[in-house]
Amino acid sequence: MAGETSNLSVARMGTVHTQRDNKSIAVESKSRTSQYLRSVQRYVWDDPDKPRKEKWFLFKLDIFLLTISCLGYFSKNLDQANINNAYVSGMEEALHMGGSELTYAGNVFTAGYVLGQLPAVILVTRVRPSILIPTVEVLWSIFTFCSAAVKTTSQLYAVRFLVAICEGTYFPTIVYILGSWYTRSERGKRMTIFYATASFAGMFSGYLQAGAYRGLNGVFGHSGWQWLFIICGVISLPIAILGYFFYPDFPETTRAFYITKEEADWAQKRLIADGMKPLGASAWDRTKIFRIMSQWQFWVLPIGYFLVQGSYPNYQPVFALWLKATGHTIYQINVWPTGQYAISVVVQILAGVLSDSPLLRGKRWQTLIAMQVPTIFGCIVLAVWDIPIGLKYTAYYLTFTCAGVPGIYYACYIQSIWWTLTVWRTVLSPRFHAAFIGSACLGVGLIMLAIILQFLQDRDEKIRALNTDTESNEETSAV
């Protein structure tokens, strides 16, 4: 009897140990899974070890500031891209645009965009962004409505110029605001999402025009291309109105309902700790202008912007024009090119995540080259032109891999006017032989410049590190 009791006790102890072992294994497995997910989050988004207070603050910024910024940029690019879809869907015939009028309309838009861009960053420090940005959004929504009523190309040019003046203000001011709230380690991925909404807008415009042509063409006496402008205006207007409530201005001036006074004060301190100067600390005066002009970035970066813009073959809806010239349907002409924008979205997000991740640690030149090489290949193939039909489709899609290359110096955007008049005139469609050769060459130049820029940046960092060590040694000697 005693032996049986002893055996029973041993069996029970073995069961308890087994349960404990299984529980330990489960806990250990759960811990490994949690560590893996935190590691993935560190690559994809913010550091998961940030304090709870900071996480909540960033969550609110993402919900309100980042969301309204992306919606506004989506609206802007939707109103900017719709002319290409309208052109291949009946506007060309309705306005008798038989020559290069589409090119001229694009150049008028560029001129207005530059005029709107140049004073924007200065103006936004004097007028609350929560008032300035939504107001220009309301105005470009109204002008988009007006685009549906144009009867001549002259009227189209005038309306596009007004739309561009308003839209030119948007991008630099939004970049300024995002940089005034997010630190360097938080900015890259969010800017990638912000940039990607432009490609989403290009995709949506194609689907929207296809749907408008199928379902609304002729309704109330308006053609499908006219309905595209009307629908774009309907989308843009409520986004503009939301902006009056969602844009938080700057940490020093914010009145946003979702930012407390303590959070605003703390936001200023964390940006100063990140190396940012407070609002108004560096006013635009002669000293600041000459200081900027004395740096190599002022002279070298505009060259990069020219190469960025010139190597991206999007000055004409080249794929859509080729589809139209080869007898495809209106639906196919509008929908098939949206695959180009889908590729650009994926490429942009991957590039943003990789360049900010611990893998590349904020370096950009590798991802820039990776995005540019397929575009160069696509442009070379299309310049050859007499190729298998499947390869031609592939080349058209590959030309949009460089859509993620950000604009480096936006004040030099004026270069696209003479570039389009030289090689991207509509009368040269659908082949655009010289344009594709030029884009490929400029893409190669951009890759070379990216390597040079990285060398110059590394040199500056070594100089700063050397100066820091020198100052540290001097302080030690003084003590």
Automatic annotation (TrEMBL):
Where would you say this protein principally sits, based on its record? membrane
Return the SUPFAM superfamilies for the record: MFS general substrate transporter (SSF103473)
Gene Ontology MF terms in the entry: transmembrane transporter activity
Listed transmembrane segments: 57-75, 104-124, 131-150, 156-181, 193-213, 225-247, 296-312, 365-385, 397-421, 433-456
What UniProt keywords are attached to this protein's entry?
A: Membrane, Transmembrane, Transmembrane helix, Transport
- Taxonomically, the superkingdom here is Eukaryota
Query: Mind telling me which InterPro entries this protein's record contains?
Result: MFS (IPR011701), MFS_dom (IPR020846), MFS_trans_sf (IPR036259)
Keyword Protein biosynthesis among record annotations: no
**An example Gene Ontology cellular component term from the record?**
membrane
Name the membrane topology term.
Multi-pass membrane protein
User: What region holds the Major facilitator superfamily (MFS) profile domain?
Assistant: 65-479
Q: Where in the cell is it found?
A: Membrane
The UniProt similarity line reads: Belongs to the major facilitator superfamily. Allantoate permease family.
Supply the name of the protein.
Allantoate permease
